[in-house]
User: Which sequence fits this backbone?
């Protein structure tokens, strides 16, 4: 015969088991990373494991695609893989702590590590130590490409920069002010995100990543994104956007750009209310030779909302055919 | 002035409006008390509540809170029990337990969760005026997450709909007070900061400010 206390313990144990059995881990809500799914294409480099794919024949001129965020991934940029048909060797990679690449704690998501990662990627895929590579960067990726160009202008053959936000700390502060100012506190999307922030507290990586995905729609309107065809992404590395900028200090990635003497192509989406034509012109002015081209009818998501037009611009620039206005 | 600043000022300017702050000095008077409030807690919110006195020092009640922008699917329902501890000088404390059911509907997922809120206020609770420090802890215990088709297409086709365990807790630290306007009516305020047990980065709009009115029927 069971005592009341043992019965209570048994019921509690069964309840705890049933509770554990019916609840899932938040990793069921975000895609697996290279550490969780060995079948994903990956590369061990720079002290981490990147989700990375290449297209084209090794030995061809190298184009490195840099995704935005910081924190998103290269999924929305995969149309650029067709550059392989034009004789390029195209490298896609999810940056440290983002997409399907390995997760890292905040202290490893530093500006120093980010620069070293890109230097390692260039060194790994360039055809020789003096080979020059081309970059196609979207948003933060365009800032990242500019950062590398400022550090190593002799290693850069060509640049396509799609709506970068800033190249200096002062420009970034101004940009973030405009970005925050574009938020509409009375919009449904803002209220959804704000209300949800009191519901899910992201206390682990997967929950934090899902939380960011939940809030991703908050930027749709100011950036002019197509609500019917949302820009695809695998995983927004939640920790990165909070950790990386804090380690960049009072950066200025324009001090050496005069040594980059090739053309830089800036691509702008007409519907974007944050990255305005004037804003892009002001950033383009940091380069000795740059041109800003606006794609009509799209916003910051030009690679997924107008893939053909955007690809044509990138292709023409990289092939040296000149920009088609 | 940008819209963000304007909206924040709007929220603050609306403070002489509402919040469910109870004064244990009146728990014996609370036969039936209704509450209406407005403020900012994440989004701009409106709330309404009811409190029934069980005879000092206990009250029970319920409230509903909604984002100011009506959508119909976002809400918080809470049942509460509160006990006051008062000295003869009006100094004392009040402890509250809430069980809450919330729903947050977004373009990416619908999340329904059940959680527990614990709060304590300590300070002065007089006949006409109360002013207390407030410390609260909120914990979501169980959530049902239903990813939308958009999320499956945009991000993760295999995202699992189902129950998920508790997320991190959320702390509030602030002040709460009230002033009796006339017999049966009390204007209340609570405001403070929010800190969560998040992995990194800033909490989204990490403050709260709610004003309300309590009306004894």
Assistant:
């Amino acid at each position: 015969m069971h005592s009341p206390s043992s019965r209570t313990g048994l019921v509690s144990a069964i309840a705890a088991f049933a509770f554990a059995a019916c609840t899932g881990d938040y990793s069921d809500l975000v895609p697996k990373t290279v550490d969780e799914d060995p079948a994903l294409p990956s590369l061990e480099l720079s002290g981490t494991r990147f989700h990375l794919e290449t297209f084209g024949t090794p030995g061809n001129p190298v184009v490195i695609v840099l995704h935005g965020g910081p924190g998103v991934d290269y999924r929305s940029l995969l149309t650029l893989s067709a550059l392989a048909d034009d004789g390029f060797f195209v490298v896609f990679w999810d940056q440290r702590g983002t997409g399907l690449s390995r997760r890292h704690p905040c202290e490893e998501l530093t500006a120093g590590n980010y620069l070293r990662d890109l230097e390692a990627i260039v060194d790994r895929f360039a055809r020789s130590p003096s080979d020059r590579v081309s970059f196609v960067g979207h948003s933060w990726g365009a800032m990242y490409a500019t950062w590398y160009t400022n550090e190593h202008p002799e290693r850069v053959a060509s640049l396509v920069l799609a709506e970068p936000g800033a190249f200096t700390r002062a420009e970034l502060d101004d940009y973030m002010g405009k970005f925050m100012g574009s938020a509409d506190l009375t919009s449904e999307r803002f209220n959804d995100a704000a209300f949800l922030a009191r519901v899910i507290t992201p206390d682990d990586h997967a929950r934090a990543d899902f939380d960011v995905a939940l809030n991703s729609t908050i930027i749709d309107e100011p950036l002019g994104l197509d609500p019917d065809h949302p820009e695809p992404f695998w995983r927004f590395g939640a920790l990165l956007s909070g950790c990386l900028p804090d380690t960049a200090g009072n950066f200025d990635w324009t001090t050496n750009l005069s040594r980059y003497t090739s053309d830089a192509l800036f691509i702008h989406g007409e519907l974007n209310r944050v990255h305005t034509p004037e804003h892009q012109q002001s950033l383009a002015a940091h380069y000795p030779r740059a041109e800003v081209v606006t794609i009509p009818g799209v916003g910051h998501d030009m690679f997924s909302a107008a893939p053909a037009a955007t690809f044509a611009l990138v292709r023409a620039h990289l092939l040296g055919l000149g920009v088609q206005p | 002035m940008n819209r963000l600043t304007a909206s924040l000022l709007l929220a603050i300017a609306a403070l002489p409006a509402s919040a469910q702050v109870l004064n244990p000095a009146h728990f014996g008077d609370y036969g039936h008390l209704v509450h209406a409030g407005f403020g900012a807690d994440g989004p701009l919110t409106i709330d309404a509540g009811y409190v029934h006195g069980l005879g000092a020092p206990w009250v029970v009640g319920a409230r509903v809170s909604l984002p100011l922008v009506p959508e119909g699917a976002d809400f918080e329902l809470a049942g509460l029990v509160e006990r006051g501890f008062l000295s003869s000088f009006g100094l004392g404390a009040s402890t509250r337990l809430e069980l809450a059911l919330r729903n947050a509907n977004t373009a990416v997922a619908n999340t329904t969760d059940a959680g527990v809120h614990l709060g304590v206020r300590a300070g002065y609770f007089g006949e006409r005026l109360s002013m207390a420090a407030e410390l609260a802890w909120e914990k979501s215990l169980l959530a049902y997450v239903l990813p939308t088709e958009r999320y499956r297409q945009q991000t993760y086709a295999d995202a699992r709909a189902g129950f998920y365990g508790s997320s991190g807790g959320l702390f509030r630290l602030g002040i709460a007070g009230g002033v009796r306007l006339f017999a049966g009516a009390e204007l209340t305020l609570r405001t403070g900061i929010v800190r969560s047990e998040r992995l990194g980065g800033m909490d989204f709009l990490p403050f709260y400010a709610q004003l309300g009115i309590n009306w004894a029927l």
About this structure: The CA atoms of residues 8 and 240 of chain A lie 46 Å apart. Residues 4-22 of chain A form the longest helix (19 residues). Chain A has a mean pLDDT of 89. DSSP finds ten helices and nine strands in chain A.
